[in-house]
From TrEMBL:
<keyword id="KW-0378">Hydrolase</keyword>
<keyword id="KW-0255">Endonuclease</keyword>
<comment type="similarity">
    <text>Belongs to the RNase T2 family.</text>
</comment>
<dbReference type="GO" id="GO:0003723">
    <property type="term" value="F:RNA binding"/>
</dbReference>
<dbReference type="Pfam" id="PF00445">
    <property type="entry name" value="Ribonuclease_T2"/>
</dbReference>
<dbReference type="InterPro" id="IPR018188">
    <property type="entry name" value="RNase_T2_His_AS_1"/>
</dbReference>
<dbReference type="InterPro" id="IPR036430">
    <property type="entry name" value="RNase_T2-like_sf"/>
</dbReference>
<dbReference type="InterPro" id="IPR033130">
    <property type="entry name" value="RNase_T2_His_AS_2"/>
</dbReference>
<dbReference type="InterPro" id="IPR033697">
    <property type="entry name" value="Ribonuclease_T2_eukaryotic"/>
</dbReference>
<dbReference type="GO" id="GO:0005576">
    <property type="term" value="C:extracellular region"/>
</dbReference>
<feature type="active site">
    <location>
        <position position="89"/>
    </location>
</feature>
<protein>
    <submittedName>
        <fullName>Uncharacterized protein</fullName>
    </submittedName>
</protein>
<dbReference type="InterPro" id="IPR001568">
    <property type="entry name" value="RNase_T2-like"/>
</dbReference>
<dbReference type="GO" id="GO:0033897">
    <property type="term" value="F:ribonuclease T2 activity"/>
</dbReference>
<keyword id="KW-0456">Lyase</keyword>
<keyword id="KW-1015">Disulfide bond</keyword>
<comment type="function">
    <text>May remobilize phosphate, particularly when cells senesce or when phosphate becomes limiting.</text>
</comment>
Amino acid sequence: MHVFLDTQWPGSYCDTKRSCCYPKTGKPAADFSIHGLWPNYKDGSYPSNCDPDSVFDKSQISELLSSLQKSWPTLSCPSNDGISFWTHEWEKHGTCSESELDQREYFEAALKLKEKASILQALINAGIKPNDEFYHIEDVKNAIKEGVGFTPGIECNVDSSHNQQLYQVYLCVDTSGSEFIECPVFPRSKCGSRIQFPKF
Ligand code: AMP
């Protein structure tokens, strides 16, 4: 088993036919944000909703609230405070962690990993910027590999003009949720060879 840290470019979540809603706390930072930390099997399948008794408890993340608002913002509509997104991620994926992270540890692990990855900085260092330009997917992958030290998986989505854009970046993490590792499998990518990096 391994764990995926799935990060997302908010500009690409929002730049689709469906659009998005900014959280109640305002427009998120122009940075990759967390979608989730997902335990995964080597064959690509994953466990889900592993402990129905472990319901999300807001009081356990009270000290992480401002970090979560900054780094794990909700973009679903209608505009909300993020609790339903975090509840979904904890109950569906967080309860399946092999090292049995508790709720606070789960959110803390994801926040630390996201900071450690510095995905946007890795891209900018390679001249890849969120400026609506198109980039070769191999250049995007290599820039992240160079910065983080491990090969990322890239997922694309499409804007209303059918342009493929850089949507999610996956990195693999050991089961303790602390160190990046090379991925044994990658999620399906759906990217063309040239992808747009939208402004946000
Ligand atoms: P998952 O079930 O963890 O694989 O995540 C997929 C779900 O997360 C879908 O319902 C998405 O619409 C939702 N989702 C993805 N990104 C966000 C976001 N930034 N804010 C709110 N919901 C999201």
